[in-house]
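Q: Please design a sequence for this.
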C-alpha cells in the first residue's frame, strides 16, 4: 500500500509522514530530502546553476541512498547538512529541472516497489504514484507554516526573522506551483487537510484513521 502526502513547504509533511510510517510499520520516503541532497552534491561539484543541462548531468551521476530515515550522498550521511538556508535557496535549480525530475521519479518509484510506503513531497500523488491507495494534500496558513520553519531552523542554531521566512516561502510556493513538470497541485482524488490549529498528534491520528480505512482486509 502506498500513502502519498503532498503539500507546500512548512505544512509539516516530513514530521507527519515519518510518524505515520512508524505507527503503521511502513517504509518512509522524504522526497524533498532527495532533491536537497542532489543540490548539495551539485554545489560540491561546483556546478554552473545557470546551465540546466550541466545540473542534470551532475545530479544523475550522484549516488543518493537511504539508511533508515538518514539520507546518504556518495555514502556520506548528509541528513543535517541539507537543511541549511543555502540549500533552501538553491534547491529550485534542481527541483525545477525537467531532466532531474524525470530521473528522481524513477528513483522514487524504485523505492516504492513491492513495499508499504508513506511518501511525501510535492508531486507524489499526481506524478510519481498516481495509483496510490491514499493521497493527502497537507497545508496550513502561511503564518503557521513560517513559524514551523522558524522553529526548525532555531533547532539547528540558525536564526531567521518571520518576515524573511514568509517572503522566501511565498517565492517558493510560486515556483512550486508554476513549474512545468510536477507542479504543486492537489491530485484530483486527494483528501485536503488544513493543519492550522492542529497538534502533530491530532494530524497523525487523523491520517492513521484514513489509512486504516483504505487498508486491504488482513493487512
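A: Design:
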Amino acid at each position: 500500500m502506498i500513502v502519498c502526502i503532498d503539500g507546500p513547504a512548512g505544512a509539516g509533511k516530513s514530521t507527519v509522514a515519518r510518524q505515520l510510517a512508524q505507527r503503521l510499520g511502513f517504509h518512509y520516503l522524504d522526497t524533498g530530502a532527495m532533491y536537497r541532497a542532489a543540490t548539495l552534491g551539485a554545489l560540491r561539484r561546483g556546478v554552473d546553476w545557470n546551465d540546466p543541462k550541466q545540473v542534470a548531468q551532475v545530479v544523475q551521476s550522484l549516488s543518493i541512498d537511504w539508511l533508515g530515515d538518514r539520507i546518504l550522498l556518495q555514502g556520506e550521511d548528509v541528513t543535517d547538512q541539507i537543511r541549511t538556508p543555502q540549500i533552501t535557496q538553491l534547491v529550485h535549480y534542481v527541483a525545477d529541472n525537467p531532466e532531474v525530475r524525470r530521473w528522481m521519479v524513477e528513483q522514487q518509484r524504485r523505492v516504492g516497489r513491492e513495499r508499504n510506503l508513506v511518501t511525501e513531497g510535492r508531486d507524489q500523488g499526481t506524478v510519481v504514484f498516481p495509483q496510490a491507495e491514499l493521497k493527502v494534500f497537507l497545508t496550513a496558513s502561511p503564518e503557521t507554516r513560517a513559524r514551523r520553519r522558524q522553529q526548525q531552523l532555531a533547532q539547528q542554531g540558525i536564526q531567521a526573522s518571520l518576515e524573511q521566512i514568509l517572503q522566501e516561502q511565498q517565492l517558493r510556493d510560486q515556483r512550486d506551483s508554476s513549474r512545468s513538470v510536477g507542479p504543486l497541485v492537489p491530485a484530483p482524488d486527494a483528501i485536503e487537510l488544513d493543519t492550522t490549529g492542529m497538534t502533530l498528534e491530532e494530524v497523525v491520528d487523523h491520517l492513521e484513521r484514513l489509512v486504516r480505512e483504505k487498508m486491504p482486509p488482513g493487512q
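Q: Thanks. Anything notable?
A: The chain has one domain: 2-212. The first helix runs from residue 13 to 24.
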